[in-house]
Each structure stands twice: as structure tokens, then as C-alpha cells.
Design a protein that fits this description.
Layout: H1 17-25, H2 27-34, H3 37-44, H4 49-76, H5 80-107, H6 112-116, H7 122-137, H8 140-164, H9 175-182, H10 184-200, H11 206-232
Helix pairs in contact: 1-11, 2-11, 3-8, 4-5, 4-7, 4-8, 4-11, 7-11, 8-9, 8-10, 8-11
Length: about 240
């Protein structure tokens, strides 16, 4: 779902103002990620690889639509800096993060043709349809809020896994996934998204901030259902 270590980087920024409020509003939802059996299975290496395979395919299909959200962000941007940032992430998704998925799928013996012909699960379709609706109907800040939940939650999950299960990063199968999202480069890429969100919302009224919280909360809930979908292998 989120981005690779090759994404644009910048000086560390502090999580504050808008982003802090988004995270505070979804604290309970995010706590559920860390206790989810799918996540715990990655952490201790006990996750059934069939479930992980299902997840990777659906996540690959998700990323195709996720990239389109950034593409709409380019069209909706009001300045060159925002345009360049959104455009840069499109490249990183299509030619970076999706390569990680392809490598896993090769290890699992899944051909590109199989992935392309796999039906999109209802949960994946609902989540990506919501983000695209936000992208088409709203502005750059709202697009950033929709993107941010996925990007930041994966970093949070991976770092807690490493903190509680130090050997997880060296697991022969799941270690690559853990290291990818706990990586410093991935963290730096997320800092860029945070900085963008703060810049775009610097003059937002309270009512507009509340609307961003609604978007971020909806996407956070969708993240939770995505883990449920993967664990249950829901069609």
C-alpha cells in the first residue's frame, strides 16, 4: 500500500497541528491494527502464507488505484511544489513499491497474468472507490488526508513489530515486508507527506479540519477492514 524508501525526502518535521489531530481522532482504530491476528502473525512469523499471498495480490490491486489518487492530486494541485510531490509518488508506487509485491509473488509462484485476472475484493473496491471519490470531489489537502492514513499506519505497524519482536526483520519470509515499512527512507517519505498536509491546511478553519478528520477516520476504518479481509480471505 504505502511508499518505498526511494520516495522524496526532506528534513525531519514534527507531527503537529493537523496531523496530530488526525492521529488523535483515530487512536482507538489504530490500536486495533497492532492487535490484529494478521499483523501479529507477521510479527511472530506464524501467519499462513496463503493468507499473505491473498493479501499481497489485493494490495497490488489496491496500489493501482492508490496511484490514481496521487494522479488526481497532480491535477488538483495549486502550485508546482505540490504537483511535483504527487507526481513523484506515482513513480515510486508504480516502479518501487509494486516491485516488492512482484518479488513476493514470484517467490509464491504467482504470475503477473494471475494477478491481473484476480477479482478485486469488495473491501479493496470499497476502499479505493472512497479515496478516488475524495480525490475527484475535493482539493489537495483532502487528498493528502485520504492518503496519509495508509502511509503512516504501515510505518507504525512495522516499527511496533520491530520493537516487540526484534527478530521479525530477519524472518526469512516476512522480514522483507517488516524492514521495508520500518525503513528510515520510508519514514522520511512519510515526513514529506506530513509536511505537505501541514502546509496545505495552515489556514484551514475548524469546520474544514473536522472534515479532514472525517476523511482520515474513514480511511483508517478501511485500513482495519483491509486487514480483516486479508485474514478472512474475503472475496
Amino acid at each position: 500500500m504505502p511508499l518505498t524508501s526511494e520516495a522524496p525526502t526532506q528534513t525531519e518535521v514534527t507531527i503537529m497541528n493537523t496531523t496530530k489531530r488526525l492521529l488523535a481522532a483515530t487512536e482507538d482504530i489504530w490500536a486495533g491494527y497492532h492487535a490484529h491476528p494478521f499483523v501479529l502473525g507477521i510479527a511472530d512469523g506464524s501467519l499462513d502464507q496463503e493468507k499473505f499471498q491473498y493479501y499481497m495480490i489485493q494490495d497490488y490491486l489496491y496500489l493501482i488505484e492508490y496511484a490514481k489518487v496521487f494522479a488526481v492530486g497532480v491535477a488538483k494541485a495549486h502550485d508546482m511544489e505540490t504537483m511535483r510531490l504527487f507526481a513523484g509518488y506515482i513513480h515510486q508506487i508504480l516502479d518501487g513499491e509494486m516491485d516488492i509485491h512482484k518479488a513476493y509473488m514470484q517467490r509464491l509462484g504467482i504470475s503477473p497474468a494471475e494477478v491481473e485476472h484476480t477479482p478485486v475484493s469488495l473491501d479493496t473496491l470499497s476502499y479505493t472507490s472512497y479515496m478516488l471519490r475524495v480525490a475527484y470531489d475535493e482539493g489537495p489537502a483532502e487528498i493528502a488526508a485520504a492518503i496519509l492514513s495508509c502511509a503512516l499506519s504501515y510505518e507504525s505497524i512495522a516499527k511496533q513489530i520491530v520493537s516487540e519482536h526484534p527478530a521479525a526483520a530477519d524472518h526469512p519470509f516476512y522480514g522483507e515486508w517488516v524492514k521495508g515499512y520500518a525503513d528510515e527512507g520510508y519514514h522520511e517519505a512519510n515526513q514529506v507527506l506530513i509536511a505537505l498536509t501541514e502546509r496545505l491546511t495552515a489556514d484551514y478553519s475548524e469546520s474544514r479540519i473536522q472534515h479532514l478528520i472525517e476523511i482520515f477516520t474513514a480511511c483508517s476504518r478501511y485500513e482495519g477492514t483491509f486487514w480483516d479481509m486479508a485474514w478472512e480471505m474475503r472475496p
